[in-house]
Automatic annotation (TrEMBL):
A GO MF label: 3'-5'-RNA exonuclease activity
Cross-referenced PROSITE patterns: RIBONUCLEASE_II
GO cellular component, one term: P-body
UniProt xrefs under InterPro entries: NA-bd_OB-fold (IPR012340), RNase_II/R (IPR001900), RNase_II/R_CS (IPR022966), RNR_Ribonuclease (IPR050180)
BP-aspect Gene Ontology terms: mRNA catabolic process
The protein, known as: RNB domain-containing protein
Lineage: superkingdom: Eukaryota
Span of domain RNB: 11-79
PANTHER family: DIS3-LIKE EXONUCLEASE 2, RIBONUCLEASE
């Protein structure tokens, strides 16, 4: 796909447009402007080394492009070959100051890193927004969740089918359960110091219905897999998960999350 984007425009078409524009403006005569000179100048600054394409036009990540420019300028300065933005004078042998002072380069690098984190966060939030819209259009989605962590009366879940990570209060995660309780259990494997390792355990119980004398009981620990019902919250455009009992998971007819 990237190769197709890079070759979407024909080099000759771009050069023809540039030549016609210059000739119409009257800035140069027909003899001063040639296709060969313009094409050579264009390919000089547009060739992509990694993709090995003559005209690179894939500009979907300008933050990455600016970071690459900073690296290329530093490499050109170390190699002593100069850079097109500040070319080295012919015959220059004396040492000169760097292209960019270290303090300024530190600020630019920190800004690039910050923008990269912000764009990644915006991308993740955008994906969650579209996922919430998709879940809302389907009403409810039944899927499997993996328990990642417990703490502070909350549970952290991973929905592997769509890569979504959710954090919920235990009370909201188990609304249909009669009781739930947090405890710890002893891990059968000892630590290197010989002490017994303890891990959190969530015990959830449901009331018995008319078909059975005892209600369902589920024990959840870290990395446990449990059935959940995904819905879109009415208070905001975000996805929430509710734990299903074994019977609810068997009889539920909700769609599965396959995005």
């Amino acid at each position: 796909m990237r190769m197709q984007m890079a070759l979407y425009f024909n080099v000759e078409d771009v050069v023809d447009r540039a030549v016609r524009k210059v000739r119409r403006s009257g800035q140069a005569s027909s003899t001063d402007v040639s296709h060969e000179s313009w094409e050579a100048s264009l390919l000089r600054f547009s060739h992509h080394f990694g993709l090995n394409v003559p005209l690179y036009t894939h500009f979907t990540s300008p933050i990455r492009r600016y970071a690459d420019l900073l690296v290329h300028r530093q490499l050109a300065d170390l190699l002593g070959c100069g850079h097109w933005s500040c070319p080295k004078a012919p015959g220059t042998t004396t040492s000169r100051s760097p292209v960019c002072p270290p303090k300024r380069l530190t600020v630019q690098a920190a800004w690039c890193n910050r923008m990269r984190r912000e764009t990644r966060r915006a991308q993740e939030e955008s994906q969650q927004l579209f996922l919430a819209a998709w879940v809302k259009s389907n009403g409810s989605i039944q899927d499997k969740a993996v328990v990642l962590n417990f703490g502070g009366g909350k549970i952290q879940l991973l929905i592997p089918s769509c890569g979504l990570i959710l954090t919920h209060q235990l009370q909201k995660f188990c609304p249909a359960a009669s009781t739930w309780q947090m405890s710890t259990r002893c891990d059968p494997h000892e630590t290197e110091q010989g002490s017994v390792r303890r891990s959190p355990l969530l015990t959830v119980k449901w009331r018995a219905d008319g078909d059975s004398e005892q209600g369902d009981t589920v024990n959840l620990s870290v990395l446990s897999v449990c059935p959940v019902q995904l819905t879109c919250s009415s208070r905001g455009f975000y996805v929430k998960a509710e734990l299903l009992s074994p019977k609810q998971a068997e009889t539920s007819t909700g769609s599965s999350c396959t995005v």
